[in-house]
Amino acid sequence: MALTGLDIYKLLPKTNCGDCGSPTCLAFAMKLAAKQVSLDQCPHVSEEAQAEMGSASQPPIRLVTIGTGQAEIELGNETVLFRHEETFYHGTGLAVRLRENNPEAEKRLELINKLHFTRVGEDIFVNLLALEEESGDPEKYGVFAAHYGSRTHLALILISRSPACLKAALEKMGDRRPLIHAAVDDNIDEVAGLAKEYSCPLVVRGKGVEETAKLAERAKELGVEDLILDTTPDNIRDGLADQVIIRRQALNKQFRPLGYPTIAFTDPGADKMTQALEASVLIAKYSGIVVTDLLEHEYILPLLTTRQNIYTDPQKPIQVEPKLYEVGTPDRSSPLIVTTNFSLTYFTVEGEVEASRIPAYLLIVDTEGTSVLTAWAADKFNAETIARSEERRVGKECRSRWSPYH
Ligand code: SF4
């Protein structure tokens, strides 16, 4: 049976040392009960307490980290089936594939490295480069992976079924901590050995959910903890069904062999629009990583936007700082435009004002990140709040200099 936060708190050292990243043991216990952290983040917990908490204290979907430094991406640790129940925590990693024999690999890499955008004030970008082996030649693949891996800031996935090719590439990766794809039934001992030797996360790839779960158990027995699941579906319908089954089994049944993030591929034989639709389905439910051959802005930007929308906490709208903004170089005769601090509203209005080429003041009222109509309906955007905002912001910001409001 799941332990409550107070049950867990009783088993912790209660020293409030903060080494786990939480300010107090109670705060850590509450997060542990909500499956947002794992017990191993407290280095001081006794062996007896560990045994008592056991699997009840483990997040139902393991948090797996790929890459290091700025390229690092975290996956998993999700706690709900539906975003409105709480939130989704770790956005789907979008990966673009680079094949070893592609004569245009250089050009593709240049385009992949530029798949970085700003939307509603946030940076959104592709996270991973998937380097796929095709030659069967360890030396050749090692050179390929080292060459292209060194020319990108993205986290890396090494794709090969050959342990020798994977080893040749891993030897050249330094501390990049790439994701290894994949351990299958006939190579799992060797490939799991590589994951252990190089401390890298590992994909286990079976045919269907059942076989993949068995491979995950086997990899765990071999000492690999950071796993990603690939069920090798034949089509997007099966792929979607697999994703939902895995998420349900992990969350509702606490079935440990499926308690890992997943990876899925768009169909490289499909047309681009179909691939984009497949990727959007997989982002919505519940793929940890989606690997695609797409790299055109018109497909990638909508996918990144979809991810941004799904992985935004529904209880915390994206906000901008409420204050007086200047668009262009406004003066005494410039208009004052008033709106709310919901990011999407702010950037839409700001974009329109900028496009008009008429310099203006933009007074952004604090409506706790709600849009104009929602804020108005909740009485957060009315004459009084606007006047208060003007007094507070304009008074504070412009008192010491010339202002059109004096
Ligand atoms: S590291 Fe352990 S002992 Fe220290 S505050 Fe966190 S839970 Fe408490």
Specify the structural class: alpha/beta
Task: Give the name of the CATH superfamily of the largest domain.
Answer: Dihydropteroate synthase-like
Describe the main β-sheet briefly.
8 strands, parallel
Write down how many β-strands occur, each being a DSSP E stretch of 2 or more residues: 15
Task: Name the helicity range.
Answer: 25-40%
How many structural domains in the coordinates? 3
Q: Any guess at the CATH architecture of the largest domain?
A: Alpha-Beta Barrel
- Quote the beta fraction: 15-25%
Query: Which segments are poorly predicted (pLDDT under 50) over 5 or more consecutive residues?
Result: 399-406
Write down the CATH topology of the largest domain: TIM Barrel
Strands side by side in the biggest sheet: 10-9-8-7-6-3-12-11
Task: Assign an overall shape.
Answer: globular
* Secondary-structure element string: HHHEEEHEEEHEHEHEHEHEHEHEEHEHH
**Heteromolecules bound:** iron/sulfur cluster
Taking Cα atoms only, what radius of gyration do you get, to the nearest Å?
25 Å
Give the overall average pLDDT.
92
Q: Count the helices. How many?
A: 14
Task: Report the end-to-end length measured between terminal Cα atoms.
Answer: 65 Å
Q: What is the CATH top level name of the largest domain?
A: Alpha Beta
What attributes characterize this protein structure?
3 domains; TIM Barrel; three-stranded mixed sheet; 16% strand; single chain; disordered C terminus; eight-stranded parallel sheet; 406 residues; 3-methyladenine DNA Glycosylase II, Chain A, domain 3; alpha/beta; binds iron/sulfur cluster
